[in-house]
């Protein structure tokens, strides 16, 4: 076997509790899986302080005109694509704000393509559009994927902020990362199958990261998705419910205000909460980085100020 590599990582250790899984009943197999999965959230909890720092830096970068890039291969790359794809319908994130790069491109999303994850040069080429304002996040359970190495190396060369999300405390690529996010999920139920616990941890981390970034950018009101794009009947119904829930308006009033706002939830919500017309709501949002909370504070502060009569005592 030519060019083989032995990875040293907890995910490659043999799980002592599942040695007999091949002779277990179906229910026992599922119980093995469930028991192992129950440890993942704890591993992710350990990385939250570093993840918070990554979120804060990413928010600052985006506000300065930067973007977030994910790089991964196999399961890691597919999870990256999934996370980035959800941000438009969920938060109306601008196209290209989060960019997912998967080793092998679109064909490798559905079927494994040989050797693409081992191509350092391709990782660097795929990162050619990265600028120094951007944040580049490499996802690799083993902590050594050459494709990710190429991307992180190129990013560091031009001065972009970098992060590594891995399941390996001894990750070879740690030196390439300004932010090292290590969720040590340990041995897998099936030895080396990092689509299991390690993949679940990556999904949780990506969920938390992108959601926190969007919240910090003002794309929610309380815990409501006020930037959701109503692309189907279910979401159109949700938009009306969100508006009613947030403002206390009747369904008829909510629908009428939405119509006046051209179907845009944020201006409609601010109009109802601030007691202003839709045009004034749009202007206030524009002046406050599209944040409902900041715009509402300005509107309520302005309306509560006493009116000067021009008289002196």
From TrEMBL:
Residue ranges occupied by any SIS domain in the UniProt entry: 58-219
Any one Gene Ontology BP term: peptidoglycan turnover
Active-site residues, Swiss-Prot/TrEMBL: 86, 117
Protein origin, superkingdom: Bacteria
Catalytic reaction equation(s): N-acetyl-D-muramate 6-phosphate + H2O = N-acetyl-D-glucosamine 6-phosphate + (R)-lactate
Annotated EC: 4.2.1.126
Keywords from the named record: Carbohydrate metabolism, Lyase
CDD domains in UniProt: SIS_Etherase (cd05007)
Family statement drawn from the similarity comment of this UniProt entry: Belongs to the GCKR-like family. MurNAc-6-P etherase subfamily.
Subunit structure: Homodimer.
Further details from the record: A lyase-type mechanism (elimination/hydration) is suggested for the cleavage of the lactyl ether bond of MurNAc 6-phosphate, with the formation of an alpha,beta-unsaturated aldehyde intermediate with (E)-stereochemistry, followed by the syn addition of water to give product.
Reported function: Specifically catalyzes the cleavage of the D-lactyl ether substituent of MurNAc 6-phosphate, producing GlcNAc 6-phosphate and D-lactate.
Name of protein: N-acetylmuramic acid 6-phosphate etherase
Species this chain originates from: Knoellia aerolata DSM 18566
């Amino acid at each position: 076997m030519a060019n083989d590599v032995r990875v040293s990582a907890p995910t490659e250790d043999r799980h002592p509790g599942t040695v007999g899984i091949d002779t277990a009943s179906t229910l026992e197999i599922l119980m093995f899986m469930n028991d192992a999965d129950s440890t993942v959230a704890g591993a992710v909890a350990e990385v939250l302080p570093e993840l918070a720092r990554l979120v804060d830096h990413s928010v600052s970068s985006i506000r300065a005109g930067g973007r977030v890039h994910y790089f991964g291969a196999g399961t890691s790359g597919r999870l990256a694509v999934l996370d980035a794809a959800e941000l438009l319908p969920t938060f109306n994130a601008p196209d290209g704000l989060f960019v997912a790069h998967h080793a092998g491109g679109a064909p490798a999303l559905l079927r494994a393509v040989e050797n693409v994850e081992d191509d350092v040069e391709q990782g660097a080429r795929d990162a050619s559009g990265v600028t120094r304002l951007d944040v580049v996040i490499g996802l690799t359970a083993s902590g050594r994927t050459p494709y990710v190495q190429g991307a992180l190396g190129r990013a560091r060369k031009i001065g972009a902020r970098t992060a590594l999300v891995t399941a390996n405390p001894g990750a070879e690529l740690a030196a390439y990362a300004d932010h090292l996010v290590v969720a040590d999920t340990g041995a897998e139920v099936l030895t080396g199958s990092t689509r299991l616990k390690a993949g679940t941890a990556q999904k949780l981390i990506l969920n938390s990261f992108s959601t926190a970034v969007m919240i910090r950018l003002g794309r929610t009101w309380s815990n409501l998705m006020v930037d959701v794009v109503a692309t189907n009947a279910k979401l159109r119904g949700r938009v009306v419910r969100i508006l009613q829930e947030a403002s206390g308006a009747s369904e008829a009033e909510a629908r009428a205000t939405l119509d006046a706002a051209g179907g845009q939830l944020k201006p409609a919500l601010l109009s109802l909460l601030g007691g202003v017309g839709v045009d004034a709501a749009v202007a206030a949002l524009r002046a406050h980085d599209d944040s409902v909370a900041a715009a509402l504070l300005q509107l309520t502060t302005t309306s509560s100020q006493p009116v000067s009569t021009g008289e002196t005592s």
